[in-house]
Amino acid sequence: MSENNANPFAYTEIVKDHFLNPRNFIMGDEKEWQSDGEGIVGNPVCGDQMLVKIRVKNGKIEDIGWKTYGCASAIASTSALSELAKGQTLEDADKITAKEICDFLGGLPEHKFHCSVLGHQALHKAIQNYLEKTS
Amino acid sequence: MNLDYGNASSLHSYGQIAKNELIKARTKIATLIGVAPLSLILTSSGSESNNTVVRTFENCPIFVSAIEHPSVLKPAETYGSPCVKIPVSQEGIIDLVFLKAKLEETIRKTPKTKILVSVMLANNEVGTIEPIKKIAALIKELRTKHRTKIYFHTDATQAVGKISVDVKTLGVDYLTFTGHKLGAPVGVAALYSRLGAPLKPLILGGAQESHRRAGTSNVLLACAFAKACELAKKNLEKYQKVEILRDYLKEGIKQKIKSQIVITPKNSLPNLLCVSFPASEGESTQLYLDLAGFEVSTGSACASGDLEPSHVLMAMFHDAEIAHGSVRFSLGPKTTKKEIDLLLENLPPIIEKIQDLSTLNKENPNVRK
After folding, report:
1. Partner residue opposite B300 with nearest CB, options A4, A75, A112
2. pLDDT tens-digit series, residues B107-165
3. Number of domains present in the structure of chain A
4. Distance of CA A39 to the CA centre of its chain
5. Domains of chain B by range and CATH?
């Protein structure tokens, strides 16, 4: 519309896979997903919002769950982040960058990169939230 | 036609063959909207037709609806002095009271200036049909009362071929429509300009199109456009069937999907249905549907080149979430009930999945779950 016809698969096969089969997302009510820390970023008015929740054991991310409101790029990049972060120490997980997520997915369209790769920021907030709670 | 044709402006025989073909084509195109062939200018696109009219009123007050196509909005914003945007209701219908008040105010302040009003016949994103006859009557009334030079343009690009369009009944001074919406190749369109209404050529040069649009006449495209117009006239009644299927889709969606907002109003083009699915971002819906074999469009910011939500939906609802969640279904004479049934089977689980992935509450997308 406004003749907004984006070329549907301007996305890579990996993006497509993560978009259609998102990994580690929280099915149903997120409140029932017990966690040690959570973080949310983005704004629905802009069209993207991500929630990331983590379970921590021995300083490592034992499990990660998420929800995302947004486009294919937003959904796939949060899914990719969850794969990258799972099993990592909090310190390493906190270092994951937007570029790493983008590379993991085999690249994203330039104009999507800045607005939709936000999952690592949500994870950062979740880690902060965990540290605040435990300190 | 003879493909060995010449330049329609040349006197030699090949030129004359081309000239005759052009005359025949122009007559057929003009017939579709009920105007005299000489009042019709052939252009390269609807955007060119719209730009030509709007630029004629450079430095004059230009009134446009807030939901016009960018090819009206952008030149109006650039050349209007001022450019006044007419607000619309949630059904997408322009505010006639606002228009009348603003026009009277402008006439009072600058009684001698020329004024252009441009309101589309039907909107391309939501299908709303605007009250063109009522606007024309208002303009006529103001013209007579104040002896002002107010002119009225309608962009009928989406409407021609889908509903009956007759210039005399509508009462407009200018009307835009385009070939590719009727099945002709991209690259040819028309502008009706009432004889006597001002018109400045956008492209200066030769004397083609009675000095109103320079450039060697594209006879081949004109002939294709003419053929498409003939077929469009015959196809018009098929859109009654399209409307029945569109309404069937609308009812099906309402029945099968709990959280949805049907945006297309009752008085609309027969082939369009715009629906917003709360908490289900439009580009995601579009891509899931594409992979299931259904091509739709969306007013979501994510799917647009400039990352802005649809200006049409924003003008109607002032709510970005509704625009982000919007999906437009377009039907045609070839669409079958079987295809609609298949869509109604595929759509609910897709929306449900995206809504489940979402951080937003589908009952009230402006708050979190």
Report:
1. A4
2. 999 999 999 999 999 999 999 999 999 999 999 999 999 999 999 999 999 999 999 99
3. 1
4. 10
5. 13-235 (3.40.640.10), 238-357 (3.90.1150.10)
